[in-house]
Amino acid sequence: MRVELPIIVRSTEIDVNGHVNNAKYLEYLEWGREEWYEKANLSYQTFLDMGLQTVTVNININYRKEAFQGDQLIIYTQPQKLGRTSYTLFQQIINQHGNVVADAQVTSVTIDVKTRKGVPVPQELTKFF
Amino acid sequence: MRVELPIIVRSTEIDVNGHVNNAKYLEYLEWGREEWYEKANLSYQTFLDMGLQTVTVNININYRKEAFQGDQLIIYTQPQKLGRTSYTLFQQIINQHGNVVADAQVTSVTIDVKTRKGVPVPQELTKFF
Amino acid sequence: MRVELPIIVRSTEIDVNGHVNNAKYLEYLEWGREEWYEKANLSYQTFLDMGLQTVTVNININYRKEAFQGDQLIIYTQPQKLGRTSYTLFQQIINQHGNVVADAQVTSVTIDVKTRKGVPVPQELTKFF
Amino acid sequence: MRVELPIIVRSTEIDVNGHVNNAKYLEYLEWGREEWYEKANLSYQTFLDMGLQTVTVNININYRKEAFQGDQLIIYTQPQKLGRTSYTLFQQIINQHGNVVADAQVTSVTIDVKTRKGVPVPQELTKFF
């Protein structure tokens, strides 16, 4: 399941170099993942009801093109890799010219809300991989 | 009670015009108020224990000078005006040259956590005015 | 000329209290003003070509309702008041239920790019008031 | 050359989950790198004078511990790996208890300001590796 979220680059997201700041991309990616979880019917509350929480443990991002104020970006999010207690989503940010602005692998683990230890990724999530 | 909080302007706080963005100043002011409440022994939890919460209802800010990366700013916060269910803090941001970068009046109301209605400002807070 | 800009509240715009942070609203307002200037054909470059720049000197904002993740907000921007070297835009943020989340008066001055002194607001801008 | 930058976690850097948001760490890292370049006497202008610019192409960050409001963090930055036209800085964020909050490898390339193509890392920078 590949989910897309369109956004427009706003003035306050531009840094002194005239382009979107490298940290801002991680916000864009988070917005994209929120959209993915929503489409997957996996809200924060749904995980809590299973006694689980997901925690981001690694983000590996490639910056490929600059983005500018007014750019129309699409953030794509899709499942990539499944471990026992971890899973990786692949995300791409594409601009209005079809260029890849950035891509990233975002790895999370599922933990038990009480013990705070890693537990197997639940079937509600593994089914998408 | 006038409380000061020194900060240094960081790269990601600068916008495309090469100076601190107007919205960022409101973050600086919030950091300054947090410092004031801490010095006043009035934490979020302390208010909750009284069944109260404070809600910002108005900010009136004057932008007087630009601020730049590396600037050493001091955020001053002090009580200014007391109403029945509201109170106003006066804040100033001063740079390393002694210039006023911005000043603001920040008005909050105290509300009952349950009814969400305005209630008289508690004595723990009025004593500073 | 009243211009509207629709936005959706994103996860990273929510603070520890579970609602949009007070500083974030000033970013929303700036996005709205950018939209207004664009519709008015008054880009940053257009002002520069006249030897002018606009500088925000005061923002007076009322916080009226909380905003939450996923809220569909519209930022309205319109001319309000005209001085000799200054002008005030009135802005409102309305949520999907028709409630006013915040409103603000934003006052700017037009300055000469070289002398950095205030100069009369140009006719290209006064005609909207 | 290992450079350290102490910071304090501020209220507006905390997200709805009560801890520092994952994107904010990339701002902290940028602040740390700015400090490193300054200590290395390699300002943005110094690179420009050589006809060069540095561009971040990859950030690989591990999130290891949560950080909270008021935490006293130190951001450590040091050279790690040198390529022909690229170089990698290693960064760590350590909290007041001595725990690693996050660590990251940040890879940049040096480009010619005019051609925008990768060029060999200059000796002014390679000498630190």
What is the approximate shape of chain A? elongated
β-strand amount of chain A: 35-45%
Oligomeric state: homotetramer
Distance between the termini of chain A: 8 Å
SSE pattern of chain A: EHHEEEEH
The largest beta-sheet of chain A arranges its strands as 1-3-4-5-2
How many separate structural domains of chain A? 1
How would a textbook summarize the main sheet of chain A? 5 strands, antiparallel
Low-confidence stretches of chain A: none
Helix content of chain A: 10-25%
CATH class categorisation of chain A: Alpha Beta
CATH topology of chain A: Thiol Ester Dehydrase, Chain A
- Based on the coordinates given, report the CATH architecture of chain A: Roll
- What pair of chains forms the biggest interface? A-D, 17 and 17 residues
CATH superfamily of chain A, by name, is: Hotdog Thioesterase
User: Radius of gyration of chain A, Cα only, in angstroms?
Assistant: 16 Å
Average pLDDT level of chain A:
96
Number of helices of chain A: 3
Descriptive account of the structure:
4 copies of one chain form a homotetramer. Chain A has 129 residues and is α+β, with helices and mostly antiparallel strands. Chain A has one domain (3-126): Hotdog Thioesterase (Thiol Ester Dehydrase, Chain A). Chain A has 3 helices and 5 strands. Chain A has helices at 22-39, 44-49, 123-126; strands at residues 3-8, 52-63, 72-82, 86-94, 100-112. In chain A, strands 1-3-4-5-2 form a 5-stranded antiparallel β-sheet. Chain A is elongated and about 45 Å long. The model of chain A has no long low-confidence stretch (mean pLDDT 96). Chains in contact: A-B, A-C, A-D, B-C, B-D, C-D. Strand 2 (52-63) of chain B pairs antiparallel with strand 2 (52-63) of chain C, so a sheet runs across the interface.
